[in-house]
Write a structure and sequence with these properties.
4 helices; 24 strands; 4 domains; alpha+beta; RNA Polymerase Alpha Subunit, Chain A, domain 2; 11-stranded mixed sheet
């Protein structure tokens, strides 16, 4: 019994010593790794040149040669991200940092060594770079600017409507593609903005619809639409009729001499509406043979007035 107890104690001590040894081993290994990573190392890093601020009609060729080889020196810690992928993107401004030639952008690598150093960061010392000059191939597509047509299906809540007109952040877009297709396009329509029961201001981003065209891009691709929605009410006003294009040798008598207009107006402008703000005309020259009535039309109204309706659709007349 005593011997068995001694064996259990011995096993416990062995296990305890093994755990302690493992802990010391792990700590020593970590210290070794940190010591190694604190040393300076030299390594070649591939820099993929990514042109930014490129004109919309420029199409860059996805060329595997658009790389710069940068031979750098740095601490092991800084080089760790490149253990499994030794490449990094280098952003180059197409407007200011390259020269444009036929079929190629020319990037003077040596001249822009500072750009490489700044994007790599202060942890890296650039020893050398290759090549001295990089040619980035491109092709140019046709382009032109066309107006935007806004497509909408908006239903307002009862007693509400749009005050004024919609506002847009842009009124035209650049279409880019093959010359044959670009020539066919005279405008670009938005995707339909569908809204229901609207009683508050509108502010939406809508996409431009180029689904009917193949291999065409638009820039920008979206349109911001804003509109002021407020309460509206109906107003009624009586406006005298003006006869136009009446021959000098013809005298007519017509009835009624004035018509009643109903209109839709926002509450803010309801009290400022006057009969002089409107003009209703009957064009004698539009009479058809044997027609005994004139048709009144509203030819002038305030810009803030909506949905004007003439109660009397016909004006009877007789020639004297």
């Amino acid at each position: 019994m005593k011997t068995k107890k001694n064996l259990n104690i011995l096993d416990h001590l062995k296990k305890k010593n093994f755990k302690r040894f493992t802990l010391f081993f792990v700590v020593a290994f970590v210290f070794l790794i940190f010591s190694k990573l604190s040393n300076d190392y030299k390594q070649t890093i591939k820099l993929k040149v990514n042109l930014v601020n490129v004109d919309d009609e420029i199409l860059l060729k996805n060329d595997s040669t658009n790389y710069i080889q940068a031979y750098v020196e740095s601490k092991g810690f800084s080089l760790m991200p490149f253990m499994f992928n030794n490449s990094k993107e280098l952003e180059v401004d197409a407007k200011n940092e390259v020269t444009l030639k036929s079929q190629n952008f020319v990037f003077d690598v040596l001249k822009h060594k500072y750009l490489i150093e700044s994007q790599l960061g202060s942890a890296y010392e650039v020893i050398s770079i290759m090549p001295d000059t990089l040619l980035i191939a491109y092709s140019k597509r046709a382009s032109k600017t066309v107006p935007i047509r806004f497509k909408k299906a908006i239903n307002y809540a009862v007693g509400y409507d749009l005050k004024g007109e919609f506002s847009f952040n842009i009124d035209s877009v650049k279409v880019v593609g093959s010359l044959e297709e670009v020539d066919k396009i005279d405008s670009v329509t938005t995707e339909a903005l569908v809204l229901n029961e609207i009683k508050s201001d509108i502010k939406h981003i809508v996409r431009l619809d180029i689904s009917e065209y193949d291999h065409i891009d638009v820039f920008p691709k979206t349109l911001e639409v804003t509109g002021n929605v407020t309460r509206f009410t109906e107003g009624i006003i009586e406006v005298p009729i003006v006869i136009t294009n009446q021959p000098e040798n013809i005298t007519i008598n017509y009835f009624p001499k004035a018509v009643t207009l109903s209109y839709y107006v926002d509450l803010e402008n309801y009290d400022v509406v006057k009969a002089l703000d409107f003009k209703v005309e009957c064009n004698y020259a539009e009479l058809e043979e044997n027609q005994t009535f004139l048709i009144p039309k509203v030819v002038k109204k305030p810009n803030f007035i909506k949905h004007v309706n003439i109660k009397q659709k016909q004006i009877d007349f007789i020639e004297l």
